[in-house]
Design a protein that fits this description.
Elements lengths: L1 E6 L2 E3 L5 E9 L4 E9 L6 E7 L4 E3 L7 E6 L4 E6 L8 E11 L2 E6 L3 E5 L2
């Protein structure tokens, strides 16, 4: 199994920045991809950014050019640097991992961290 612990959420002003962290533990070697998702009240959960073991990266259209996903393999941590924040970025942000364990694909989620963008 994989455990995900998120940190870094909070309040930011429009145009400001926040950096989220997601530290993974457990079957680290089984993970083949990590991602950030977000969900605002009344809206569907949407992909924010996705990164594979080979460092192939995808961004959601709404954040492309403003957010950056990165990894620190020595710390088993994935980051989401969020710049030029807008009020519509307000949501609960979830860390996600995909892992191949016991010949099966498993999906894991962090607890979620609230990001609020407001003046």
């Amino acid at each position: 199994q994989v455990q995900l612990v998120e940190s870094g959420g909070g309040l930011a002003q429009p145009g400001g920045s926040l950096k989220l962290s997601c530290e993974a533990s457990g079957s680290i070697s089984s993970i083949y991809a990590m991602a950030w998702y977000r969900q605002a009240p009344g809206k569907a959960r949407e992909l924010v950014a996705h990164i594979t073991n080979g460092s192939r990266i995808l961004y959601g259209d709404s954040v492309n050019g403003r957010f950056t996903i990165s990894r620190d393999d020595a710390k088993n941590t994935v980051y989401l640097q969020m710049n030029k924040l807008r009020p519509e970025d307000t949501a609960v942000y979830y860390c996600n991992s995909e892992a191949w364990i016991d010949s099966s694909e498993h999906t894991y989620w962090g607890q979620g961290t609230q990001v609020t963008v407001s003046s």
